[in-house]
């Protein structure tokens, strides 16, 4: 019998790539998503890649009644909880929306899991919980909680909620995964990141400049105390990240209790390095200009990824050039994302 994995937000960028890996590893994903930042076309793409169209139920995770019906009618082994809003700028404009959606959905999810005696959960946290890190690379034991925006605050609060729950209920297995900067796309060119409107994040902005949708990239600050003055991040290929979830499920199967992992490459890449890698990988020039710093940005953020390697066997396969090639392959084959 295949293990059923409930994947909240499973039609989104990271969720969809994880669903593909789950299917390929013989799990049975059951997707719930309210489509606030995704499209059902993703299901056809997953079918093209894997031969399997996963089950999908359209619902908001905050809808306790509908969510309960999903648990009642399935035999859920574990939940991977991706559903959430993630735009930092929007969270500053609409903090309540972020508290309601991200924290509210997790509260409902945990309540329903308890009702149906489901004890296993993997949660999508973020390196943003480290705030402005005191040192790089960042270890899991480094301080968290100095959030700089409501989005980050929701991740910190949910982590606190999960840590408290693990103390109250020793039968719970909880994996908190702190993602660094996911980019790249499935190598088939059938799945990738499809942001609404003008992208906030670097890689989708670069690919939209490359495809001619946007005239030029603005680089936010070249006076940081970094190798070339531009911000440094840990860019991780979304397929590596997806594989990290499968390895985490294998860990969950050993009843580990509470575990926390950084999922990154351990390599810091500057904005300029990323732009040059993109140009070299794809033979396209990216027009850019230097502008002032973006408020709230930290100079450097990259992981020490040793713990995930030691305990999960997690080791990234793809480098920054692979990421740039796959992001561009997705964008050029799908200039309008999942829209026809
Ligand atoms: P995404 O927006 O592509 O996917 C999230 C999915 O959740 C979307 O399909 C959306 O429709 C759905 N959703 C949102 N609220 C929902 C709700 N209340 N009920 C049901 N569905 C809902 O984002 P992503 O990049 O795939 O991110 C997945 C998770 O990983 C998020 O929790 C995000 O905060 C976290 N994360 C992302 C990044 C990143 O840079 N992409 C970095 C760190 C952490
Ligand atoms: N960045 C940039 N121009 C953009 C978007 C991002 O220079 O249009 C920079 C940003 O300042 C940071 C890096 O690229 O140094 C990664 O930003 P992103 O928003 O992708 O991820 P973050 O780490 O901020 O979550």
Question: Could you characterize what this model shows?
Answer:
This protein has 340 residues and is α/β, with parallel strands linked by helices. It is built from eleven helices and 14 strands. The protein has helices spanning 13-24, 41-50, 64-72, 88-93, 95-115, 150-168, 202-210, 238-252, 271-282, 306-312, 320-333, and strands at residues 4-8, 28-33, 55-58, 76-81, 120-126, 173-179, 181-183, 217-220, 232-233, 235-237, 258-263, 269-270, 288-291, 300-301. The strands form four sheets. A seven-stranded parallel sheet has the order 3-2-1-4-5-6-11, with helices on both faces. A three-stranded mixed sheet has the order 12-9-14. A two-stranded parallel ribbon has the order 7-10. α1 (13-24) packs parallel to α2. The radius of gyration is 19 Å and the shape is globular. The protein binds nicotinamide-adenine-dinucleotide (NAD) and uridine-5'-diphosphate. Nicotinamide-adenine-dinucleotide is lined by residues 8-9, 11-15, 33-38, 60-62, 82-86, 101, 105, 124, 126, 179, 181-182. The site of nicotinamide-adenine-dinucleotide has 28 residues, from α1, α5, β5 and β7.
Principal-axes geometry comes out as globular
Q: Into which percentage range does the β-strand content fall?
A: 15-25%
Portion in helices: 25-40%
Give the ordered list of helices and strands. Answer: EHEHEHEHHEHEEHEEEHEEHEEHH
Distance between the termini: 37 Å
Topology, number of strands: 14
């Amino acid at each position: 019998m295949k293990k059923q994995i409930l994947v909240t937000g499973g039609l989104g960028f990271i969720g969809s790539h994880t669903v593909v890996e789950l299917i390929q590893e013989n799990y049975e994903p059951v997707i719930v998503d309210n489509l606030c930042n995704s499209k059902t076309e993703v299901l056809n793409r997953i079918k093209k890649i894997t031969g399997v169209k996963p089950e999908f139920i359209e619902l908001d995770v905050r809808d306790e009644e509908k969510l309960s019906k999903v648990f009642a009618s399935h035999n859920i082994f574990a939940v991977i909880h991706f559903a959430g809003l993630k735009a930092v700028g929007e969270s500053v404009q609409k903090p309540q929306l972020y508290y309601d959606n991200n924290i509210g959905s997790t509260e409902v999810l945990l309540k329903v899991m308890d009702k149906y005696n489901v004890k296993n959960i993997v949660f999508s946290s973020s390196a943003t919980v480290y705030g402005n890190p005191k040192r790089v690379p960042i270890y899991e034991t480094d301080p968290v909680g100095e959030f700089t925006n409501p989005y980050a605050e929701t991740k910190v609060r949910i982590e606190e909620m999960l840590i408290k729950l693990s103390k109250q209920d020793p039968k719970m297995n909880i994996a908190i995964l702190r993602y660094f900067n996911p980019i790249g796309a499935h190598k088939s060119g059938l799945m990738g990141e499809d942001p609404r409107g003008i992208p906030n994040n670097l890689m989708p902005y670069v690919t939209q400049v490359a495809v001619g949708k946007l005239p030029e990239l603005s680089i936010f600050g070249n006076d940081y105390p970094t190798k070339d003055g531009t911000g440094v991040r840990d860019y991780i290929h979304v397929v590596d990240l997806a594989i990290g979830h499968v390895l985490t499920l294998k860990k969950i199967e050993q009843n580990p209790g509470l575990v926390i992992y950084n999922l990154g490459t351990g390599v810091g890449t500057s904005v300029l390095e990323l732009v040059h890698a993109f140009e070299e990988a794809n033979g396209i020039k990216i027009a850019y200009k230097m502008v002032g710093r973006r408020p709230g940005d930290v100079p450097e953020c990259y992981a020490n990824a040793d713990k995930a390697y030691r305990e999960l066997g997690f080791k990234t396969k793809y480098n920054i050039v692979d990421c740039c090639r796959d992001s561009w392959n997705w964008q050029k084959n799908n200039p309008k994302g999942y829209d026809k």
